[in-house]
Amino acid sequence: MDAIILQILNGLDKGSAYALIALGLTLIFGTLGVVNFAHGALFMIGAFCAVTFSRLLSLSYETVDPTKTDFLGNPAKINTPYVQDWFGMQTGSVIIDWAVPLSILFAIPVMLAVGVIMERGLIKHFYHRPHADQILVTFGLAIVLQEIIKFYYGANPIPTPAPAVFAGSFDFGTLMGFDPNTIIYPYWRLVYFAFAVAIIAGVFAFLQFTTFGMVVRAGMADRETVGLLGINIDKRFTIMFGIAAAVAGLAGVMYTPINSPNYHMGMDFLVLSFVVVVVGGMGSLPGAVLAGFVLGILESFASMAIVLETIPGLNQIIIYLVAIIILLTRPRGLMGRKGVMEE
Q: What is the pLDDT of residues 233-245, one digit of tens each?
């Protein structure tokens, strides 16, 4: 039972990332009808927003401390971060330690701007083009963004630690009556799951309970009728593209302590996220979220030692096997609208 609970926790962790990326993909496909193969690159850019913000907080100036000497006997040189100089040693150290969560404030405007620029500068020219053209141009854009990141940040992963308070692990088993140290799970992974749930709930609440969201949902259902009512639905869809980019970026920001950012991390998640969208149902936001968590849990169980001893490599293909079964039996996906992908 403890092994099952641990795998469920691992699955929720993976599923959180899948669900957040798939949610943004579905927002774009549902509003604009665009198959955006550059969405994984937005996840990567978000992660490197956290890297950039951490480096900015670590900028320092050099001073000489005459009371200390180096190994040669010369006065020791000390690097003092500007943040510590401005806010004091203790407060500055806390700010640097909390760089990843604080980088959310930096990433939101950056990702909104990237999304709007991407949509206005490139995507809008492919609204009425075949999906194959959309895939080719957005995949090409993803490669360009990937190479830009590689040029400026290098090819090696960049460790970006979580705040020290979340560095340990939580004894999850004691809450459920197990012996101490039976189910140990990292604090930050639990934080990531809670963050993902909050973002998903926020997006659904925004679409469901705000006037802007209701207009967007109406536009997703019948774009032409909404336009005939005098509403500039294109402008609202552009904003939704920016929001979808921000969701992917925030998923990348908070994922940095789990998986050190590297230039190809967007591609690693892209294909899996598209499989999640297809399994959930093209254009279905609840379906994308449900499929993300379900496939994350299935992948986690397929990674168990006892399973891999029986079927080696199952964890690498389980998601694709599920996708094949779903497409053969229910082409529109788990929660897709009738008629979608069924012609």
A: 888 888 888 999 9
DSSP H helices in 99-232:
99-121, 131-153, 172-175, 187-209, 211-221, 223-228
Instruction: Report d(CA 290, CA 276) in Å as an integer.
Output: 9
- Beta-carbon contacts of residue 310 (< 8 Å; ≥ 6 apart): none
Identity of the highest mean pLDDT range in 166-180, 211-225, 253-267, 280-294: 253-267
Q: What is the DSSP letter of 70?
A: -
Whether the CB-CB separation of 119 and 252 falls below 8 Å is answered with no
21: number of Cβ within 10 Å:
30
Region for residue 230 given its phi and psi (left: phi exceeds 0; alpha: psi -120 to 50; beta: otherwise): left
241 and 32 Cβ atoms separated by less than 8 Å = yes
Q: What are phi and psi of 307, to 5 degrees?
A: -75, -45
User: pTM for the complete prediction?
Assistant: 0.87
- Nearest Cα neighbor of 279 from 296, 255, 258, 266 is 296
Q: Which residues contact 46 (CB under 8 A, 6 or more apart)?
A: 107, 111, 248, 249, 250, 251, 252, 253
Domains, the chain, in order of start with CATH, read 2-56+98-329 (1.10.3470)
